[in-house]
Amino acid sequence: QVHLVESGGGLVQPGGSLRLSCAASGDMTGINALSWYRQAPGKRRELLAAITTSGTTNYADSVRGRFTISRDNAKNTIYLQMNNLQLDDTAVYYCNAWGMGFNELNYWGQGTQVTVSS
Predict the structure, then answer these.
(1) 3 state SS for the chain
(2) Residue 101's closest CA among 42, 53, 69?
(3) Which one, of 39, 25, 2, lies nearest residue 114 by Cα?
(4) Rounded CA gap, 106 and 27, in Å?
């Protein structure tokens, strides 16, 4: 079992920045990647960025160049640095841990609200 706790959300003005954190605990055996998703009201949950156990990163086109995912292995924590935030970045942001071994492993955090407003 993996437990994920997000933090760092809040209210920010357009053009501003925020850094989200996701602290992972529990048995990480079999987890291949940690990712950030978001879900805005009335919209599907959207994959934003992922980082594998080897450090490879991938980004959605909507955030590439503005958001950066990173990890601190010693702290079992991943981060999402978000720059130049826009109104349509407003959403609940979720952390995900995924792995595919004998069974698929898929864990979610509780989410943290990011609101971009002037």
Answers:
(1) CEEEEEECCEEECCCCCEEEEEEEEECCCCCCEEEEEEECCCCCCEEEEEEECCCCEEECCCCECCEEEEEEHHHCEEEEEECCCCHHHCEEEEEEEEEECCCEEEEECCCEEEEECC
(2) 53
(3) 39
(4) 13
Tokens 């209210």: give the residue. Answer: 11
Q: Give, in degrees to the nearest 5, the angle at Cα 108 between 65 and 47.
A: 30
pLDDT in tens, 11-59: 999 999 999 999 999 998 899 999 999 999 999 999 999 999 999 999 9
For residue 45, give the amino acid letter.
R
Burial class of residue 48, CB neighbours in 10 A (0-12, 13-18, 19+) = buried
